[in-house]
Amino acid sequence: MRTVFDLAKKREKVKWLEREIQNPDIWKDKERAIKVTQELTQLQQEIVQFDKLKEELSYLKKEEEIDKFEKKLKEEELKVFLSGKYDKCNAILSIFAGAGGQDAQDWATMLLRMYERYAAVKGFRTKILHQSFGEGGGPEGRVGTKSVTLEIKGNYAFGF
Question: Does the reported pTM lie above 0.90?
Fold first, then answer.
């Protein structure tokens, strides 16, 4: 029931944003106009997704289709709960090895790989902005990560 209520609120917000864009004064403030149009586009996409899910629900016939539909519905429902101020934005992730020497540096490298793979599964794009490596050498010749800053781009990257 909450999803239906949130969807109705989103439809009202779309109407308000559409009226806002039609106001000629908005185009005087370019930054505000860009923010409003981006928010409008994103809300319209969310509404279209829910409408598609609603349509798919009426065509369900097999249990396999029900499972697929349920998965899609849960993904969209999760987006409803990710409605914080920054949840829809891109993210910057920093990992620091801290104290612990080579083991901490190796762990930081593993975390970096885990986050990169998670982002790839979610369909986000990643880019390493800065990476500081540890000392090489030792019997294994390992080189860990002292610190790394990762940019993650995509819808809801910050929220996830």
Answer: no
